[in-house]
C-alpha cells in the first residue's frame, strides 16, 4: 500500500486537492519566513524609508492575524460555535478590519506620492510658447495685401 493510499483512508478524497494546495502554501510561507529571518528587523528597517517601514509592519501584522483567523476559518469555526462564540464577531476579525483601514491609508499616501506634480515654471513656459505673439516679421507680412486682393484706401 502506497503513502497516497494510506492518506486517502484518513480523510475524504474530495478534500485531497485542497489539502495539497494548503500544504504548498504552507511551504511557501515557511520559505518566505526563513528568508525574512536571515536579516534582523533593525537591519531591514534601516534600509527602508518610513513609508516602507509602515508597509512592512502592516503586512507583517496582517499576515499573522490572517493566519490566526485562518485557523478559525478552517477548523475553528466549529470549535468557536461549540463554545457559544460567533466567529464573525471574534476580535481577530475586527483587528483585521482595523489593519486594512491603515493599509488603505498608506496606499492613499503612496498614490499621492506617485501622482504627478505641477511644475508651475514649466507650465508657464509651455503656455507662453504655445501662444502666438506678433513680432516685427509677422507685422510686416500682415500689412502686405495678399496676392489677388486689392488694397483698400484709407
UniProtKB/TrEMBL annotation:
Function field: Plays a role in the recruitment of the exosome to pre-rRNA to mediate the 3'-5' end processing of the 5.8S rRNA.
Keywords: Cytoplasm, DNA-binding, Nucleus, RNA-binding, rRNA processing
Region annotation (Disordered) ranges: 129-154
Entry annotated with the keyword Membrane: no
Coiled-coil parts of chain: none
Subunit structure, interactors included: Monomer and homodimer.
Places the protein is found: Cytoplasm; Nucleus, Nucleolus
Family to which the UniProt record says this protein belongs: Belongs to the C1D family.
UniProt cross-references to InterPro entries, sorted A to Z: Exosome-assoc_fac/DNA_repair, Sas10/Utp3/C1D
Matching Pfam families: Sas10_Utp3
Source organism, top-level taxon: Eukaryota
Transmembrane stretches, start-end: none
UniProt source species: Willisornis vidua
Main localization (coarse): cytoplasm
Protein's name in the database: Nuclear nucleic acid-binding protein C1D
Amino acid at each position: 500500500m502506497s503513502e497516497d493510499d494510506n492518506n486517502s483512508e484518513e480523510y475524504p478524497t474530495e478534500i485531497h486537492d485542497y489539502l495539497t494546495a494548503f500544504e504548498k502554501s504552507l511551504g511557501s510561507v515557511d520559505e518566505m519566513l526563513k528568508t525574512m529571518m536571515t536579516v534582523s528587523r533593525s537591519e531591514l528597517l534601516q534600509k527602508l524609508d518610513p513609508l516602507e517601514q509602515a508597509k512592512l509592519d502592516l503586512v507583517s501584522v496582517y499576515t499573522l492575524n490572517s493566519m490566526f483567523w485562518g485557523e478559525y476559518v478552517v477548523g475553528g469555526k466549529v470549535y468557536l460555535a461549540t463554545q457559544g462564540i460567533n466567529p464573525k464577531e471574534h476580535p481577530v476579525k475586527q483587528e483585521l478590519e482595523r489593519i486594512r483601514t491603515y493599509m488603505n491609508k498608506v496606499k492613499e499616501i503612496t498614490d499621492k506620492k506617485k501622482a504627478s506634480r505641477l511644475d508651475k515654471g514649466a507650465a508657464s513656459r509651455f503656455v507662453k510658447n504655445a501662444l502666438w505673439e506678433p513680432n516685427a516679421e509677422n507685422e510686416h507680412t500682415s500689412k502686405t495685401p495678399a496676392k489677388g486682393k486689392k488694397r483698400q484706401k484709407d
